[in-house]
C-alpha cells in the first residue's frame, strides 16, 4: 500500500484536534495536506487566508504571539521562498510557536511544473536560526511526526511529499526529534544515509549491494536540523564511506550537513546523491530520479564506486 505523507499528516492532525484543542490551523486556500478540512470540523480554530502566503505567515505569527500553537500549511515552494522574509523575521527571530507545513517537495512535483518543485527549501529554512526541520520517510512516520509536532514548542518546518510512497515502518515506530533511525546494519563497508521518501530506494539498493558482498548500513535521518551527529559519526568511523541520498538539492541539504560535520570531526569518503545545481523540471518524477542518478541503480553505483575508492586508499 502506498500513501502520500502529506495526507496522512493532515488526517492525523484532524484526529488529534478532536481531543486536543491546543492548536489552530492557517491555510492558503490550497488542498495541500487535508488540514483545510479543519474549518468544517472546528470553524473557530481554522483560518483560511486565501492565496496570499505572506499574509498566511503574518497571521500565523500574530496568533502565536497571543499564545496559540499554530500550524500554517501550503506548498513548500511558497512557504519557503515567497514567505522567506516573513518566516525569518516574524517566526524565527521571536521564536514563535508556529509549525510551517510545506508540501509538494522535491522532484515529485515534476508533473506540476518546474516552478512548483521545491528543491531548495531545506537549504533556505536550515539557514534560519531557531528553525527545526523534520521530514517523514513514509506514512507511519508522518503520523508519528504529527503527534510530535503538537508537543513541540518553537519554529518548526515539516517537509511533506506530493505522491503516494511505500509504507516502510510498522506501528512500533516512534519518531524522536534529533535522532536518526538505524534501519539496517549488514556491516561496515559503506553507510547509506537517507532522508524522506528516498528511503525505499535506499533499502532496495542495500539489498542489491548486500547480495554482491558489499556490507551496508542504512540510516533514516528524519530530523534534518539539528542533525543526529552521533549517528553520522558512528557510521563514518565504522565504514569510512558515507553516501547521502535526498530528494533535494545537494547544496544546503542533508549532504551538505553531513559533509560539513565530517569535515570538522571525522574526514572520510562522502558521496552526495540528490539534485545537482539545477532547477527542478517538468516530467514524471521517476524519470527525473533516473536522470540525476537518484534511482536504485544510481545509489548502487555510487556506493560501489565509493567502496572501491576506499579500498584503493587503504592499500
From TrEMBL:
This is Transketolase. SMART domains: Transket_pyr. Keywords: Thiamine pyrophosphate, Transferase. It comes from the Bacteria. InterPro entries: PDH/Transketolase, THDP-binding, Transketo_C/PFOR_II, Transketolase-like_Pyr-bd, Transketolase_BS, Transketolase_C. The keyword Zinc-finger does not apply. PANTHER family: PYRUVATE DEHYDROGENASE E1 COMPONENT, TRANSKETOLASE-LIKE PYRIMIDINE-BINDING DOMAIN-CONTAINING PROTEIN. Residues 3-167 form the Transketolase-like pyrimidine-binding domain. The keyword Transferase applies. SUPFAM superfamilies: Thiamin diphosphate-binding fold (THDP-binding) (SSF52518), TK C-terminal domain-like (SSF52922). Belongs to the transketolase family. It comes from Anaerospora hongkongensis. GO terms for molecular function: transferase activity. Its cofactor is thiamine diphosphate.
Amino acid at each position: 500500500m502506498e500513501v502520500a505523507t502529506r495526507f496522512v499528516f493532515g488526517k492525523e492532525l484532524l484526529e488529534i484536534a478532536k481531543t486536543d484543542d491546543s492548536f489552530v490551523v492557517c491555510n492558503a486556500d490550497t488542498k495541500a495536506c487535508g488540514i483545510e478540512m479543519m474549518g468544517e470540523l472546528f470553524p473557530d480554530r481554522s483560518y483560511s487566508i486565501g492565496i496570499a502566503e505572506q499574509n498566511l505567515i503574518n497571521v500565523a505569527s500574530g496568533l502565536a504571539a497571543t499564545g496559540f500553537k499554530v500550524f500554517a500549511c501550503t506548498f513548500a515552494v511558497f512557504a519557503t521562498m515567497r514567505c522567506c522574509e516573513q518566516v525569518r523575521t516574524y517566526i524565527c527571530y521571536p521564536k514563535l510557536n508556529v509549525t510551517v507545513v510545506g508540501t509538494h517537495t522535491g522532484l515529485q512535483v515534476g508533473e506540476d511544473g518546474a516552478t512548483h518543485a521545491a528543491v531548495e527549501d531545506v537549504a533556505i529554512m536550515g539557514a534560519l536560526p531557531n528553525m527545526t526541520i523534520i521530514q517523514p520517510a513514509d506514512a507511519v512516520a508522518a503520523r508519528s511526526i504529527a503527534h510530535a509536532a503538537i508537543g513541540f514548542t518553537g519554529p518548526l518546518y515539516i517537509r511533506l511529499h506530493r505522491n503516494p510512497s511505500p509504507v516502510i515502518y510498522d506501528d512500533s515506530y516512534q519518531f524522536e526529534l534529533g535522532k536518526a533511525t538505524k534501519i539496517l546494519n549488514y556491516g561496515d563497508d559503506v553507510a547509506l544515509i537517507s532522508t524522506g521518501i528516498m528511503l525505499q530506494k535506499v533499502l532496495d539498493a542495500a539489498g542489491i549491494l548486500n547480495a554482491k558482498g558489499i556490507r551496508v548500513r542504512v540510516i533514516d535521518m528524519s530530523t534534518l536540523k539539528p542533525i543526529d551527529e552521533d549517528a553520522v559519526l558512528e557510521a563514518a568511523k565504522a565504514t569510512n564511506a558515507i553516501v547521502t541520498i535526498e530528494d533535494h538539492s545537494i547544496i544546503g541539504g542533508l549532504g551538505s550537513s553531513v559533509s560539513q560535520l565530517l569535515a570538522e570531526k571525522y574526514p572520510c569518503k562522502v558521496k552526495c546523491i540528490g539534485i545537482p545545481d539545477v532547477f527542478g523540471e517538468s516530467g514524471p518524477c521517476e524519470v527525473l530520479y533516473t536522470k540525476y542518478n537518484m534511482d536504485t541503480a544510481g545509489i548502487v553505483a555510487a556506493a560501489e564506486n565509493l567502496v572501491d575508492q576506499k579500498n584503493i586508499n587503504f592499500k
